[in-house]
Amino acid sequence: MPSQFTIKKNKNTALFLGILASLFFASTFVLNRVMAISGGSWQWTAALRFIWMLPFLFMIVWIRGNIGPLFQAISANLFQWLLWSTIGFGLFYATLTFGASFGPSWLVDSTFEFTIIAGMFIGPLLEKKASRKRFSKTSLLFSVIIFLGIALMQVSEARSTSLESMLLGSVPVLIGAIAYPLGNRKMMQIAGNSLDAFQRTLGMTLCSMPFWIIISIFGYMEQGLPMESQLVQTLMVAICSGVIATLLFFTATDMVRTNPKALAAIEATQAMEVIFALVGEIILLQLALPNAYSCAGIMLVIIGMILHSRTN
To answer: Of 69, 139, 150, 178, which one has the greatest count of Cβ atoms within 10 A?
Structure first.
């Protein structure tokens, strides 16, 4: 059994990786907003990220000599891989890119932080009843602080946005916030300890391809072929967010997969994306600074994330 020191060290390392992942994840929200403003189809924006990811991930796993075990794991449980990869990658990202058409990147990102609370409830529900662990009330309290911050930002934005735009920009993102931890945690269960984060990311990307092919067809029907700028920007998203950030985040969650409190804290590090996305949009799109209510909401999100990280 690992010592308390080892457990604490693993959690701190995982927290660092989670925060680093949030920096790269933030590029998704900023660049998706840039493409939405430029008139790019959200379907192409979503599908191209995963199409670009596939060769990069395949090369990484192939160089590490782990392709064979991955294909064996997928073939042994193909339907489950297809189902949960489509939910964890497909449904998650399609809703995010759709939402980017209706609001600034920091607002879409902050709404997505509902995934922190969703992950806390989903985890225990996926376990067998006999071995089901109760989620920490302390972690739930910290997650509620984050959610209050999100709600405050949404209320602030609602004062200058139509109800239709608010719903179209927030409801799909909330669906994605549930789909991401659901797909990720189910695949952690299915893969077990037999696959590492690189293999699992490649496997989920590969098994979500049928969904992305369908989405690409709709993108072609709406826009035709993707714009050149969209190809470049989705490539940047694929490398920064799809490859680097996803691998960092999956590695972090794998390190603390047996510790519900630590796992909730790692998922809470995604709250830092709000700050990174806000700074990125101010630099790239000359976005005006958010008002006092939004700033207060952002602070609540950060406070909740810090409290999560200090929970043992």
So the answer is: 150
